Fold this protein.
Amino acid sequence: QVQLVESGGGLVQAGGSLRLSCAASGFSLDNYTIGWFRQTPGKEREGVSCIKSSAGNTAYADSVKGRFTISRDSAKNTVYLQMDSLKPEDTAVYYCAAAAPIKIRIEQYGTGWCPALADFGSWGQGTQVTVSS
């Protein structure tokens, strides 16, 4: 079975920090591009960040650049999203997802790039992040 499970969400004050975890089973995260997305009910999912397979290149949306950091712990088969200097507008359900390693469609994330949303085939259940002002 292929599973992605997010954890680490919660309620935090503006300016605070959270670390989200995306734990995988059934496949190695090293062989996929892993993305973090966020969504408010009724809206399309917004790409936040991704980390590429193998080399581990990263990309960030402009809205989180300099505040969020994506990383991968291969030994734990887990990808993290460290979120610092949180703002109320960061409030959303956060999802991690996996994309196959070879893609030709890309989407700009700030100065970097990630696979297009439709190319992420496996998704976690989401974890709620709420930032109070």
Notes: The first strand starts at residue 3 and ends at 7. The chain has a mean pLDDT of 94.
